[in-house]
Structure formats: C-alpha cells, structure tokens
Amino acid sequence: MIVESLDSDGSADQARVDAVVAQGPYGAFAVAGAAVVIVLAIWLAFYVLVFLARMGG
What we know:
Blueprint: H1 11-22, H2 26-56
C-alpha cells in the first residue's frame, strides 16, 4: 500500500533526501573497497598457489 505524505509539494521528503545525500557516499566507498580487497586477495592466492607452485616444482 502506498501512502502519500500530507504535504502536497513533498518538501519534507526532499529535506530528508538532501540530509542523506549531504552525508556522502561512504557506504558505496566501503563496498567498493571491500570488493577490491577481495579481488586482490583471490588474485594473490591464485598467483602463489598456482604459478609459484609450478615454477618451484
């Protein structure tokens, strides 16, 4: 069920959106940083366990 706000111009909703946007995209940076760390860890593990293991043996 969709409930419309009582103010007709939506200024209260816009004020809330502005407050959230003013805080910045810290969550997006955190998710992107975690993804980069995971990819680098997988790459490093693959390099060590596959390439270096074959070179030594």
